[in-house]
Amino acid sequence: MVVAAETTRKVEEAREAYRGVATRGSLIYFLIDRLAVVDHMYQYSLAAFAYVFSKALSKAAPAETLTQRGDELLGSVTFTAFCYVTRGLFERHRLIFSLQLACRILINAGQLDRELVEVLVRGPKVPGDNPCAAWLLDGAWQSVCALASLEQFANLPKDVEGSAKRWKEWCDLPQPELEPLPGEWKRLSGFEKLLVIRAMRGDRTTLAVAMWVRDVLGAKYGEAVPFDLPASFEDAGPAVPIFFLLSAGVAVPMDALLKLGKGYGISEEAGKFVMVSLGQGQEPVAEKALDQMYASGGWVLLQNIELVARWLPKLEKKLEALAVGADPAFRVFLSALPQKVVPVAVLQSSIKLTNEPPSGLKANMLRAYGSFTEAIWESTMKPAELKSMIFALSFFHSVVCERRKFGPIGWNRSYPFNPGDLSVCITVANNYLDASPKVPWDDLRYIFGEIMYGGHITDNWDRRLCNTFLKTYIREELIEGIQFFPGFSSPPNLSYREYIEYIEDSIERETPAAYGLHPNSEINFMTRQADDLFSAIAELQPRGGGGGGSMTLAERVKQLLDDILEKLPDLFSMGEIEERVEERTPYVAFFLQECERMNLLMFEIGRSLRELDAGLRGDLSISEPMENLMNALFANKVPTSWENLAWPNLAPLGIWLVNFLDRQKQLAEWTADLNTPKVTWISGLFNPQAFLTAVMQVTARKNEWPLDRVVTTVDVTKKGPEEVEGATRDGAYIYGLYVDGARWDVQQGTLEDAYMKELYPKLPVVLVKATPADKAPAGDLYNCPVYKTQFRGPTYVFAAGLKTKVPAAKWVMAGVALLMTVVE
């Protein structure tokens, strides 16, 4: 960063001021060092922080004593730095920063044990049987058992089991973070309570963390710093650009920028403002604009700089050169979506501001209505139809945008839906209504679902979801009024102002039902928020040993390494197995392939661990792959070299290892007699698609059917895997599937709404059979996609036709799917 002489002088003033409070200087300089690496995308230079601290000096209140002055300075510096950093962070990242800040301050003051912070971040689990399975998730019990390794929580598992009624009542509270813990556990400190909440009510963790941060740092640290371009502009200069970090569907706040420019006599009409949208060879135009405004004292806005990654190093040098000798009024504004292509030096030298779309159904609908005026329906020949169409489209747009926050149950992939999609759809609707005597509902739905919004969609199941929403909202009954979700319906013919008032009054508290989802999806969403929070913090942690008696990285890795090697099974003897094979049926060929893949994985686990063991002993030099393995083991993650040979996985290493041993055990049981299992744990296979293909091959050969005209069908039984007495003659019995977004009613034999807090109910044993496509069951079936993990998307396996008493559209909008593995 090129630091102007005035900034340098202020930095020296700041340093001089802190020489008188040496006991607090360590924390101040610690903040400089720590905050500079908050996120690789949001870089801050040391000089930038020093400048912020110098600004804080003028904000600190005067004091009579040196100690009071130090407290005032420290409080002012901390909050000024907080504001400076958070204005350049997206909302989802701000809690990461504030939690780190609060923890580091307390650790530095000796008021918080570093080991407790590590446990909160890692969220360890200890696999084992769950005696409280009737009311507590298996993952929560595993977390409770892991907490028992800490002295203050040694009796927690025993108490949770023995006082199940009290703990269940606390866990069932809608806001347990606001209530004391049961019994003697209410005496735990605020941070220790966080550990219990993270273990037993993961969905409330983010809210509990935010509340703890406010208690530690003050209420003002829990409030978002509002977007204030004029205030940020005061810190800018010829050497300090303003960088707008954008979100999908959000543009540079041009109105605020142009309004700010007018106050300084800057405008396009005056020849003092140039805007260049980069891409398609606009780099020379941008360079020319920079040179012109450098001399004349104007402003330059370079948009979408992430699109010209190869030119950015040249831009970096250009900005550095233009900072010297520039007209004092010269300013540069940059914008980009957050991608790892922008040079660090450009980020460090810039004032970073974030601009995000409104969140929530109400905010999105109000934003949609704010993008046009009532003039849009004054010129149409069918104003009532157009009004109802616009209202339904605005609701549809808001729903598809907000479903993204629910993750895979909302959309398999995240799509960049934006206000432009809505505007074009409204224009198309207007044109079609004027050109047709009747409302062409089918044509409009096709254009909206396959072209406008469908143009973004790449997943066929997401395309089905989009079209289902349109069939539900955009239909003939809309003109008379339809219910979008309980408590919210399309209104009658209103004026523009009345529509806005209706939206503001009718949407009070948003629930997942507004998006067609089950209330459990909110629990999943909030749990994932907490997981993302701690995952990001874990990536920022140093990989050294902790203090206070904690094991070093090498010691912890060595302990885990020895434990894995001790449990690692022997390789399958493929030669001996093949000698015992009498007939190479499709099933035998499949299981042989599974054994070969398991051998590759087991060999790599053993080889890499023994190599690392030799490195830790000093017999070999630590290589980069060995260091990566060591860091993965320390962070409780599956090493990349193992993952590349294994199955899609979202579980931490501890859970993954248990799953790995169970998969090996299933194959070992098959090798004992080489008979097809009476019931197959399909979730424990490397390639479940190949197993289903084997089912079709066997059936097609037996009945002499063309294989390309055979499809897979399923019949959900009422049995558990232990109740299956023998293998079926037609098809195969499988188990290990979980229902996401609903539940299977064993007595009724149909899909039903899930029970509250029962996130992933198990499906009974399923009979998979092959049948000719023209004889496949039809009728009241929901074509349910099956995925290997909760991530969905690329882990798709096949579609299972599940019986339903209600229209299948309900389950489509609820995002119902079957999963082969879940991580609670």
Please give a structural write-up.
This protein has five domains: 5-86; 229-355, P-loop containing nucleotide triphosphate hydrolases (Rossmann fold, 3-Layer(aba) Sandwich), CATH 3.40.50; 361-517, Helicase, Ruva Protein, domain 3, CATH 1.10.8.720; 568-675, Substrate Binding Domain Of Dnak, Chain:A, Domain 2, CATH 1.20.1270; 677-824, Hypothetical upf0131 protein ytfp. It contains 32 helices and 17 strands. Strand 12 (743-745) and strand 13 (750-752) form a beta hairpin. Helix 10 runs antiparallel to helix 11 (205-217) and helix 21 (441-452) packs antiparallel against helix 22. It is globular.
Q: Mean pLDDT, nearest integer?
A: 88
Counted beta strands = 17
Please list the strands of the largest sheet in the order they lie side by side: 2-3-4-1-5
Which superfamily, in CATH terms, is the homologous superfamily of the largest domain? Region D6 of dynein motor
Compute the separation of the termini in Å. Answer: 45 Å
Summed up, the domain count is 5
Low-confidence stretches: 1-8, 17-46, 545-549
Please tell me how large the radius of gyration is: 31 Å
- CATH level-two architecture of the largest domain: Orthogonal Bundle
Top CATH class of the largest domain: Mainly Alpha
Structural class: alpha/beta
Number of helices: 32
Q: Quick one: overall form?
A: globular
Helical percent range? Answer: 40-55%
Major beta-sheet overview: 5 strands, parallel
Strand content: 5-15%
CATH overall fold name of the largest domain? Helicase, Ruva Protein, domain 3
